[in-house]
Input
Amino acid sequence: MGEIAAISAAFLWALSSILFSFSGKQIGSSSLNRIRLSFAFLFLIITHTLVYGTPIPFNATYEQWMWLGLSSIIGLVVGDLLLFQSFIMVGPRLAMLVMAVSPVISALFAWIFLGEILSILQISGVILTIGGIAVVIMDRNNSHTQIYSDRHKWIGILFGVGAAIGQAAGLIFAKKGLPSEFPALSGVVIRVLVAVISVWFFALLTKQVKKSFQQIRQFPKAFRFAFIGAMVGPFLGVWLSLIAVQFAKVGIASTLMALTPIFHLPIGTILKEKISKQAIAGTVIAMVGVAIIFL
Output
């Protein structure tokens, strides 16, 4: 069950990343993050009320709120903000490929902070994953990135790396806040609620609230993309990701959820995006490396 949920989440994130990329180019990453989280929270409280009879999980313990709240701030607020900026700067396919390094970062965190020693096979997987990502990053035929300067491209890639770190840390905290008997849907509601409060509070401090509502009226097409993307990604995708983490080992779940770039290839083909043989080879190499880490 957890493995199927992880693969499904990877596919939905591939789809939502393209939708959010279109939307973010018009309204910016900060406004997009606020709008899509607000939509997702609306979908979640309706679903939670229908399934459990309450809009939010009042039975959750303080410890669960703490761990899931930390997971939300690191993963959904900071991590996703960096990811959306990467979408805008280098395109969704390259950004999501860089995100495939997230399981590698999780393994490194476990080694540094938990004392877990990486085996020779796992180290080989790390090297292979980084090598695959490098193959794609160095592809001069990438139709999205070649119109930008190298500096612009590498800044976008660094945003993607930051997002990968946020996702890795967020999953570890989410695991701590999700005992096996606690519904994954309730965990998602807590995460998204904390994220919504955080992004709008920051918008209030920086006087960006009015701008967000103005952009909704000014860019209706971007608004529609954000609406659909919110249903696909932070609602269904995040729900499935917590089911995956809850019922499968974190390493296996992280690996399967890192398959998003693979799903980008057929989606990119449908959207008539030019995908080179080098990009395909690099993507496959990176995914093989990610899988080897958790053998």
Observations:
- The chain has one domain: 2-293.
- The mean pLDDT is 85.
